[in-house]
Amino acid sequence: MGLYIEVPHKADWLINNGTPIVPSDFTPESIRDEDFLVCLIDNGAFLAAGVAFCEQELKYILEEMADDKDSRPKFYFEVSKELLKPVCPGWNDYVK
After folding, report:
1. pLDDT tens, per residue, the chain with 96 residues
2. What residues contact 41, with CB distance under 8 A and at least 6 apart?
3. Is residue 63 part of a domain?
4. What's the pTM?
5. Number of domains observed in the structure of the chain
């Protein structure tokens, strides 16, 4: 992944600005055109919030959803592109 949310309190920001996704109910077609899927991962020392900004990144996140070997807690959100743009450094480098 290359595009991340960069705010001080990522979990709070996602709770306040996104819609939680239940992985078992998720399909790529369920994401609205004006939104992206975001995966919040607890890496222990820090939280990372990766944005699925293209089909390749979405495929990566879907594989992460299905990987039972990765025990890191993960939470998924559907978030408006309009809200993501200002909190994702490098947005213009990734989103065309």
Report:
1. 589 999 999 999 999 999 999 988 888 888 999 999 999 999 999 999 999 999 899 888 888 767 888 889 999 999 999 999 999 998 999 998
2. 47, 48, 49, 50, 64, 72, 73, 74
3. yes
4. 0.91
5. 1
